[in-house]
Design a protein that fits this description.
Chain lengths: 438, 431
């Protein structure tokens, strides 16, 4: 039984940050910008170093997932679990995990619930679109989001007309996707809804009749919404301070002309990758960089990951892994590529079921992931994952160093020292509070 | 209410406030990296020196997304309704279950109508607050904190737990049933509470060995989240022990089976959540404040079937819950109240739905209730400048009646002020 030397914690100061060392910075980066790592992925990143790893993460084109063969099921009526597993399989095996982290980030930001979208083919397309646009430009992204079929349904733009507009998308586009509450008025919501009206779902390639004698749409290729001028609003609107005729691109450009937009996106990215409580100065700097880049996501992400705040001592273990990050990270640490079914089924009890966010604000973060229910479910996931691991486990001799940075509490150290074998040591490592943090 | 607070409690609360959940700025964050000794994690269990000592129970049902008040309590004789809602008004009026010549309940609220007939349902009309926000999240926050000025950060039920209950060793005093995370209404960093999504699966699948190991692992965890993690595990473990004994003695005395086919909100397991609430209540776990949520009320689209289904879901769950409590001779202790962040726009939109609105009715159900209509019917002709219903009763008047009249808690201290009475309780204890 290997003894863990002296645990590197102090009761007086919380976790002792190891981020002064290059290797700890690399592991910190991989935990926050990818879904954890296998030993070989860690070795590659350590040999590249912190800066070069950032370049590689940002500059590598997102790898496409394999085709989902059931995606053309009439009406998109294939089980959502298939889509969840398909995505998790890609998280587990992709050569570009940063793109998957960004896809998950956008899935929580430009969120959509498969229940209301009511066509899992649309949800599949949305996932492909979010990945392709994940590190492009906010201006083009907002067009893709607005005309995405699942989104058209989720926030009701597909049924809005200029004559009798539905305000749902207009409001959330400003409140949650771009500017934030308090930066626009109710009149902007109303006139925005007029200006955005006219989008409809794409025409199917064909129809099929199911055994209930219902006619269901069949889509063989990915499509976006189509604009029907007859449903649009004719006339001028007053939107965010200007009056005149306005189309969808005009709405987006006016939103991008508001300083609040860059602040909201920068703040959300910083909270996701850096700290739960970014300072206003930090956000102002990031937002300025983002806006001057004409809303280039790579520029914003690079500014975030290379900022001193990202590797500051107080950032260390300052974020709680989301359930998906935790589970995929645990599977990668164990070298298990076959846990996607378990992962897809285990998220709900921890508060995160993919394609099924709690509401239009997406998922909450950090302390919201911690409750009596969710922490027990996290432990139960480790129990289940270990029991599903066939064959020998990877050696646990390095797990404290490579997954917990050697920074562990007295309790964790003591339990690891009592552990009888690899299985017990992996259980303690993955179920520990340290592993829930990033 | 003034009470003695141990130094550890103060320290824990203050640094968590500053550094973790609601603080601002770098100094707050730095403070958050102060120590979290084991004692702080345990401090949340510290006894309250004063507080309530009755056995009243409150169950809050959140109708999330903005419940359409006009389709819940339907105006039967207002012709303007048909002008505002050409598609939606006809069926909702013709099918409504009349309470009097003016108002009827949604036709899927048959069970609740039966309780109304027995004098067990109070409906407060026109509930809202000044200068309403139409953002779900801002309005939810206002209702959860009980503060339209948005300064308060703790939930109104969380504050009640923290100031008025002795939750020492009783983490079930406050419980969110059917949820995975803490509802904002129950949140308070000094409040001990439990979150149980599904009682049947609430436990360590690895058995007692894992339970013991995890109990040892989550002790004195350092860092800003340490106390939250440790408290979550300690609370869960104590709750499991309680449930192990309670589950063997509880037999449901009502059919909680949901007979409504929901259009897209089948994730809302309100009936299961209320059945768990009933079990916690009738087995004497000491539960006082419960919170459950039914989502799907953001009916911008095809509201007709969708909202009817949700009403049916609510009706099934509440009727079974009341019947179960009644059969277990506990109905006289329990007040059930609904809340929603806002009502919906009186005028319907092109999608056969309604957009975000303002004032709406609240349902209060149970033996403690003095049945009838309270508040005032909002006018359909005198709308505010956003085309929405004007409120007649501040939602905090309802909270005040619940806190003082039903729970016997110090409402003025919890809500920070006093409000007009809404006398919907048969025998209010302390107002």
């Amino acid at each position: 039984m290997q003894q863990v030397a002296s645990p590197r914690t102090s009761w007086a100061s919380g976790w002792i940050s190891p981020l002064g060392s290059e290797s700890a910075r690399v592991m910190h980066l991989l935990r926050r910008a990818t879904f954890g790592y296998t030993p070989s992925q860690l070795d590659a990143a350590l040999s590249d170093g912190f800066s070069k790893t950032i370049d590689r993460l940002i500059e590598t084109k997102p790898a496409e997932p394999p085709l989902l063969l059931t995606a053309d099921t009439p009406g998109g009526r294939f089980p959502i679990a298939q889509l969840q597993q398909w995505w998790i399989d890609h998280m587990l095996t992709t050569p570009t995990p940063f793109a998957e982290r960004m896809t998950l980030f956008w899935h929580g930001h430009f969120t959509t619930d498969y229940r209301k979208a009511a066509d899992n083919t649309f949800m599949y397309w949305q996932n492909l679109t979010w990945r392709r646009m994940s590190i492009t430009n906010l201006r083009s992204m907002l067009v893709e989001v607005t005309t995405d079929p699942a989104m058209l349904r989720y926030l009701d733009l597909a049924t809005s007309t200029g004559q009798n507009p539905n305000e749902n998308y207009s409001r959330e586009l400003m409140e949650l996707f771009t500017m934030g509450a308090g930066n626009y008025g109710e009149d902007d919501v109303r006139d925005g809804a007029k200006a955005l009206a006219g989008w409809q779902l794409p025409q199917p390639d064909s129809f099929a009749t199911n055994n209930m004698n219902r006619r269901l749409p069949v889509y063989s290729t990915q499509k976006t919404g189509v604009f029907n001028p007859r449903r649009a609003y004719r006339g001028s609107v007053t939107y965010l301070g200007q009056t005149g005729p306005l189309d969808t691109q005009g709405v987006i450009d006016r939103i991008l002309a508001q300083p609040a937009t860059a602040v909201l996106i920068a703040s959300k990215v910083a909270q996701h990758f850096v700290t739960a409580r970014p300072t206003t100065t930090y956000i102002a700097g990031l937002a300025d960089t983002f806006r001057r880049s004409k809303y280039d996501m790579k520029t914003l992400i690079r500014a975030v990951l290379t900022s001193p705040e990202f590797t500051a001592d107080r950032a260390y273990r300052g974020l709680v892994k989301s359930p998906t990050e935790f589970m995929v990270g645990a599977a990668r640490a164990l070298g298990a590529a076959s846990l996607s079914r378990l992962i897809a089924g285990s998220g709900a009890g921890m508060g995160q079921s993919l394609f099924d966010p709690p509401d239009v604000n997406g998922w909450p973060n950090n302390e919201s992931w911690i409750s009596s229910n969710t922490v027990v479910e996290r432990v139960n996931f480790v129990t289940a994952a270990m029991s599903q691991m066939k064959g020998p486990l990877p050696s646990s001799s390095e797990s404290v160093r490579t997954h917990l940075d050697g920074v562990i509490s007295q309790q964790t150290a003591s339990l690891l020292n009592q552990a009888a074998d690899d299985r017990a040591r992996w259980f303690i490592t993955l179920a520990s509070p340290e592993f829930q943090l990033k | 209410m003034k009470k003695e607070v141990g130094i550890n409690q103060l320290k824990r609360r203050d640094f968590l406030k500053a550094g973790l959940v609601f603080g601002a700025g770098a100094s707050g964050l730095a403070a958050g990296y102060a120590a979290v000794p084991d004692a702080f994690a345990r401090a949340v269990y510290a006894a309250k020196s004063e507080g309530v000592s009755n056995d009243s129970v409150l169950v809050m049902i959140q109708l999330a997304g903005g419940n359409d008040g006009l389709r819940t309590l339907v105006p039967l004789a207002d012709p303007v309704l048909h002008d505002l809602r050409p598609k939606l008004a006809g069926p909702m009026v013709s099918q409504a279950l009349p309470l009097n010549s003016q108002f009827g309940l949604n036709h899927n609220l048959g069970g609740i109508k039966g309780l109304w007939d027995r004098g067990k349902v109070a409906i407060v009309q026109g509930v809202g607050y000044p200068n309403p926000t139409f953002s779900h999240f801002e309005s939810i926050r206002i209702w959860e904190t009980g503060d339209p000025t948005r300064r308060q950060v703790e939930g109104w039920l969380g504050r009640t737990l923290a100031t008025s209950y002795d939750s020492n060793g009783h983490p079930l005093t406050g419980c969110a049933c059917g949820a995975t995370d803490t509802p904002g209404a129950l949140r308070d960093l000094q409040a001990t509470l439990t979150v149980i999504q599904n009682q049947k699966t609430f436990g360590f699948t690895g058995g007692s060995e894992v339970e013991a190991a995890v109990g040892a692992l989550y002790k004195g965890t350092p860092g800003i989240y340490g106390a939250l993690f440790d408290t979550a595990i300690a609370t869960a473990t104590e709750t499991m022990a309680t449930l192990r004994t309670s589950s063997s003695t509880y037999q449901p005395m009502a059919d909680y089976t949901d007979n409504v086919k929901l259009v897209y909100s089948s994730k809302n397991q309100l009936a299961a959540a209320l059945q768990l609430a009933a079990e916690l209540i009738v087995t004497g776990t000491g539960v006082k404040l419960l919170h459950v949520t039914l989502g799907g009320f953001d009916t911008h689209y095809t509201e007709l079937n969708r909202h009817d289904d949700l009403m049916g879901y609510l009706d099934t769950a509440v009727s079974a819950f009341y019947q179960d409590l009644s059969a277990h001779k506990m109905a006289d202790k329990v007040l059930i109240a609904t809340w929603s962040e806002f009502g919906r726009r009186p005028r319907e939109n092109a999608s056969g739905g309604t957009d975000h609105g303002a004032a709406a009715p609240i349902l209060l159900i149970g033996d403690p209730v003095h049945g009838g209509l309270y508040g005032a019917e909002p006018s359909l002709t005198s709308l505010d400048d956003t085309g929405n219903l004007k409120f007649a009763v501040d939602f905090r008047s309802v909270y005040q009646e619940i806190l003082s009249g039903h729970l016997g808690a110090d409402s003025a201290s919890i809500l920070g002020s006093s409000f007009d009475r809404v006398p919907f309780l048969k025998a209010p204890v302390a107002v």
